[in-house]
Amino acid sequence: MSQTVPTASPPPAGIPTPLDATYRRITWRLLPFLMGLWILSWIDRVNIGFAKLQMLADLRFSETVYGIGAGIFFLGYFLCEVPSNLLLEYIGARRTIARITFLWGACCVAMMFVTTPAGFYVLRFLLGVFEAGFYPGVILFLTYWYPTARRARVFGLFMSASALAGVIGGPLAGAIMTGLDGVNGWSGWQWVFLLEGIPSILAGLVTLVYLTDRPAKATWLTAEQRALVEADLARDAAALGPREHRILACLGDARVWQCIAIFFCIVTANSALTFFGPSVVREAGFTDPLTIGWIMSGAYLCGGAGMILNGLHSDRTGESRLHCGVPALVGAVAIAVLGFLVPVSPGLAIVALTVAIVGTMSAIPVFWQIPGRFLAGSAAAAGIALINSVANLAGFGAPAAMGYLREHTGSVSTGLWIVAAVECAALVLILAFVPPETPTAQARAVTA
Q: What would the pLDDT profile of 157-179 be if each residue is shown by its tens digit?
């Protein structure tokens, strides 16, 4: 005899339903911790952009060496991301995310001992190998806990942690590089890698005891709350209709490759802004590492607000197509304008950089609604990782090209204009390949 979940008449307006209260409890349990891990991940991935301000002179690396080293991270990421996400599907999020976090922290610490381009390349590649699977793994993990209509805001909250990492990481790196340079005979950039890697090692150990793989195993929910969530997720799966579950089928699905092309364009811009943002600020006339850190902090604070607000509006309207494409266009235009302003107007260049970060970052969480329309089960694990890993090859190409062009032209402007054109293509691809939401999907939009 099947068990049914008792229902009741809706509560008065303004009072949350038991289901809403349960999701609020889940959010407070999972999101702060996952956001903390993402902040550590993002800081350890991109702190090279700040370390560069001292590292290149100390080690006599060229801009091209830096660009290749910054980008080679994504080759390791590409090779190991799909296997890592499939492993998460079979052994659970807790052990997978703990392994990833511990190893990337150890690799970050090892970066302080780099002395040659070869060592730089190897450790950046290994950092990508170790970190592979974290971002798409968390995206997949959250689909185990939230139905479609709640995901854009949850994804937006989670991904806003990358903006918080920018808010925290810039001033932190600047303060470390300024205050500890020369202490114990180490340069400031070496202290950055040491002090920003150790917390990730510790967080990996904490993850083993804190995370829960799925709602059915959540002892911190009551039996009634677990039943409510499981029933809601089952209703959501039924409303979406048949979706692809087979792993190999997603490789031949044109929609997966269309998503890869769209995300590739967005990642190109995001990587350029991430790894060359501090250099752009310095080229605009600001030379102190701490000042550069605070400027980047303000830009990422605005970017985080944009991500959250855009995700909320997407959920409330049940529309994701234009909520992804329009911010990408705004980011592209701002990057193009930035290329003109860097040499002539420091103040306006910082404004353009901020708008570029807001537009580009706001497109990312809503993008992940698109593949969720047609992938489920093992195909979702493989498909999400495939989209993220292949698209993130742009994370190799963009920094490498930016470094090469800056070294040979003496300016970041040419690279910025190329990046702007690529990001603009994201909107074109979305309009060409992504159909509007169905009335059913919009009817399921979250209104509270």
A: 887 787 788 888 889 998 999 99
Question: Is the predicted pLDDT of residue 324 greater than 50, yes or no?
Answer: yes
Helix axes of 148-179 and 289-317: crossing angle, nearest 10 degrees? 180
- CA–CA separation, 245 vs 82, rounded Å? 15
Domain count, the chain: 1
CATH number of the domain where residue 128 is located? 1.20.1250.20
Q: Is residue 174 a part of any domain in this protein? A: yes
Work out the average pLDDT over 55-72: 90
Region for residue 185 given its phi and psi (left: phi exceeds 0; alpha: psi -120 to 50; beta: otherwise): left
Classify residue 4: in a domain, yes or no: no
Global pTM reads: 0.73
What range defines the domain where residue 46 resides?
19-443
The answer to whether position 418 is within a domain reads: yes
